[in-house]
Amino acid sequence: MLLRIVLAVGVVAAVAVAGILIPLGLAHEKPIAICLGDPATYPAAGVAGWEGEQLDNAATIMQTATALGFGRDGQILGVMTAMGESSLRNIDYGDWETSGFTNPDGTRTTSIGLFQQQDWWGSVEQRMDPATAATLFYQRLARVPDWQSLDRSLAIHRVQINLDPTYYTRYAEDAVAVVDAMSEPC
Q1: DSSP three-state, residue 47
Q2: Nearest-angstrom CA–CA distance, 164 and 99
Q3: The domain containing residue 11 runs over which residues?
Q4: Tens digits of residue pLDDT in 33-84
Q5: 54-92 burial string, b = 16+ CB within 10 Å, else e?
Q6: Domains of the chain: total
Q7: How far is CA 175 from CA 2, 25, 67, 121, 181, in A?
Q8: 3-class state of residue 65 by DSSP
Q9: What's the CA gap between 38 and 49, in Å, rounded?
Q10: Which ranges of 7-151 does DSSP label H, i.e. alpha helix?
């Protein structure tokens, strides 16, 4: 998947994902320089119990966040979200299949991918592509007023709109550990 950032006048950004130009507002977070280490150097034993494919998906989320102007705080939120939604695995099933959950209107959920995004987030292909799914997540996070000052789980809840606003709290420590272990100063 090709992920390309286009900057125009240094204020407005757009992302080209699979040939689709997606305009973005400002990420509202002061970007910091974070360089991801080589996947071959990730700890063989994993990080805080996360390993292999899970760390690869975390790296994609982190790279997407950085490309969209989100710094460490944004990376942590993206990784926390995917930990809570899919255990950092790009799965093609969701809450309906595993738990029988329905939408508030009683219809069956259509959640898939790292972020368990339903069909109104995008096509199946978009939601199953880790970089595009992360882009969709960060587009919505950028529209949450003052997301940086909110409790992490509440900020995520404002994007994901799940039943429990504190659900993601249990993943905060692991997300910080993964982001920090996979980052190195430029």
Answers
A1: strand
A2: 16
A3: 3-184
A4: 445 555 555 666 689 999 999 999 999 999 999 999 999 999 999 999 999 9
A5: bbebbbbbbbbbbbbbbbbbbbbbbbbbbbbbbebebbe
A6: 1
A7: 25, 25, 19, 24, 10
A8: helix
A9: 19
A10: 53-67, 72-86, 95-99, 124-128, 130-142
Relative to beta strand 20-24, strand 35-36 is unpaired
Tell me the pLDDT tens digit for each residue of 138-174.
Answer: 999 999 999 999 999 999 999 998 889 999 999 999 9
Which structure tokens are listed for 14? 């757009």
Q: How far apart are CA 121 and CA 105, in angstroms?
A: 17
Distance CA 19, CA 26 (A): 21
First-to-final CA distance of the chain: 24
Among 20, 18, 115, 112, smallest CA distance to 65 is for 115
Cβ-count burial of 51 within 10 angstroms (0-12 exposed, 13-18 middle, 19+ buried)? middle
Distance CA 143, CA 80 (A): 18
